[in-house]
Every structure is written in C-alpha cells, then in structure tokens.
Amino acid sequence: PTTRVMPLAMPLAMSLGSRHAFAATLRAPKRVGTNRARPAMRVVPRASALNERIIQDANAAFSIPGSVVFEEGKGGLPVCKLTHKNGGTAEVYLFGACVTSWCQPSGDEVLFVRPDAVWDKSKPISGGIPICFPRFGPSPEMQQHGFARNVDWVVCSSSADPNPDDPEPSVMFKLKDNDYTREMWDVGFEATYEVTLRRDKLKIEFCVRNPPGAEKPIDFTAAVHTYIEVVDAASPECLVRGLKGKRYIDKAIDTDNLAPEPCAGDVTFGTGLIDRVFQETEPEALLHVGTGAAVSVENTRGWTDTVVWNPHETLDKEGTWKKFVCVESAAISKKVTLDPEKVWRAETNLCVIDL
C-alpha cells in the first residue's frame, strides 16, 4: 500500500504550522455542473518563492505518482490535486484546507467557486468547501465563521491505498494553535482535515483534539460550508429534500428572534434569501441540481445539523446566486465540548446520484 507521512526531519517550508505530531489516530452519474472584532483579516502578500518551496517540499514528501501531486494554483497558492483511476479529480488548497473542485470522470464539476473569490490570502476562498471553525456565523471573538478557513494548513500525510486495485487518493492537513489563533481563541487545540477521492464519492473527515496537558475542556461550533453547483436555483426543479419535519431556525427573518419551527417540506429557492439552520437532522439530505441528478450530502458521523443557504440578490444583482446552493454539514445547535486528550470526529460523504 502507498502511504506517505511527515518525515522526522520536516522540510523548512512545511514547518509553517505545528511541528508536533497529532498522536491520536484520526483516521458514472448524470451531468451535475452547468458549464461551468474581532481581529482584522490578515493581508498576506504573495510570496512566490516561498510557495514554490512549499510545493517542492510537499511533492518530495507526499506526492504519489498518478494519485497525489502538489501544484501552483490560482494566485500562485499551493494546491493538492487528487486523481482517481477512473478519471475523477479533486483539488484542495493549503490555504484554509479548502476543497475547491470535485470533478466527475466525465469532467463535470460538482462544486462551485464564486467569481468574486480572491486568491491572495486577504480573505477566505469564497466557494468550494470552506471549513468553519471554531465558530460558525458571527462571533464577538473573531471573524465570521472562525479562523480555520483563513490560515495555512500543513500537509501531514497522503495515501493511495487501501485497495491497490482501486486506489483512493487522499491527503491530510493539520492545524495547531499559534499566536494568531490565540489572539482570538486562547486555547490549545490540534485539528486534522482529510480529503479522500473515492470511485463515486468525495469523503471529508474533520477531527479536533483537546491536546495532552490541557487543564480544562474546550468548546466550539463547526461546519463544512459546501457550495454545490446547480443549473438555476430559481427553478422549481432545484430543491433540497430530506429535511421535512425537522425544526429549523430561519436566520433570514430575524436573527434576534431565533425560535425554531418545523419544516413543511422541500426547501426551494428563488423568492428571497434562504438561510436556515436545521437541527438534529437525518444523516442524508439531497440537493436536486436541476439536471436529473442530485448531490447526496451524507453526514456519517459527528455532525448534528444541516444548514441550507442561498443568498439570492443579497449577494449580487448579476445572478451568481442562481448558480449554487450551499448544503452544509454542521455542529452548531449545541456546542461541541471536549475534555483534555479527547478527540471529536466528523465525516461527510458527497455523492452524485441519478434521480
């Protein structure tokens, strides 16, 4: 089996994050796409030489021929590309550990990156699958949705097994508390984020550990903010199914009066802002994308809630909102509390299915 982990002598450029190992073991559909404070956000200038060194060192330590490679992405930022034997691909940027692409073997894109996304680290990448941690939504402590999507993560392992006859390429990133994070959230933590490209699924696993030596529990909220491409969000054929009867908070109505109410049926779009937090949801929600296919968002473990978001014209007047819907795996209705040395694990599997 082909698995690569961080060598004992970590290359200089890979040491931007923690040098400490995370001791716990964390471990051909229809067409989907169309055509495709709070401390202030840090403005980090592009450092092409450093990015080139990071890419070189990552390839030396973690590349797997035909399965895992590190390249220069948009804005010169390092990006990991996973390639499955069937021709499917996924891309994950080290900045924010943000998945920005999941392409089917046909070449059809499943995820959506907004045209206003910037690639200079001045703000999180707008689209794909940003990580919200350690806070979801607005917070008096820090920027919206926390800092995890606004910092560099470090590659700590890659793999192309467990089945040599059908390799499933994966890459794992890690993030540890540092001076910047402690300005907002003065606790120790260790987090990993693993992305695995399976034959017919994209699997993402997010783990948080309260490290050894901690004197008290930590608590947080979290989500993976998945942007999924649709044909036309305003169409009645675009809807989210699987949430009927679940209680939700409608944040579009009144953020100061968040009384939950039961969902009457499918969630549709096109009449205004949709921003709903569904509590204690079933493992699977289906987003019908308007092509005769749907994307299954399956919360296999850890996540308790589902967020459905479409900004309508609050995003822009040009119609970008019609091209995507966010179906987010979340743990926000109740904070996650971790005692020292305990690990919280959450897993999401995305899959395209024919209707």
Describe the 3D structure:
This protein is mainly β and 355 residues long. The chain has helices at residues 48-62, 179-184; strands at 3-5, 68-72, 78-83, 89-93, 98-103, 131-132, 154-159, 170-176, 190-197, 201-209, 218-224, 227-229, 239-241, 247-250, 261-262, 267-268, 274-278, 284-288, 293-301, 305-310, 324-338, 343-354. The strands form 3 sheets. The protein has a 10-stranded antiparallel β-sheet, covered by helices on one side. Strands 6, 11, 12, 14, 15, 17, 20 and 21 form an 8-stranded antiparallel β-sheet that branches. A 4-stranded antiparallel β-sheet has the order 2-3-4-5. The chain is globular, with a radius of gyration of 19 Å. The two termini are 36 Å apart. The model is unreliable at 7-31 and 34-39 (pLDDT under 50).
Arrangement of strands in the largest sheet: 1-7-8-9-10-22-19-18-13-16
- Compute the average pLDDT: 88
First and last CA, distance:
36 Å
Structural class: mainly beta
What is the element string, with H for helices and E for strands? Answer: EHEEEEEEEHEEEEEEEEEEEEEE
Count of DSSP-assigned helices: 2
Write down the Rg. Answer: 19 Å
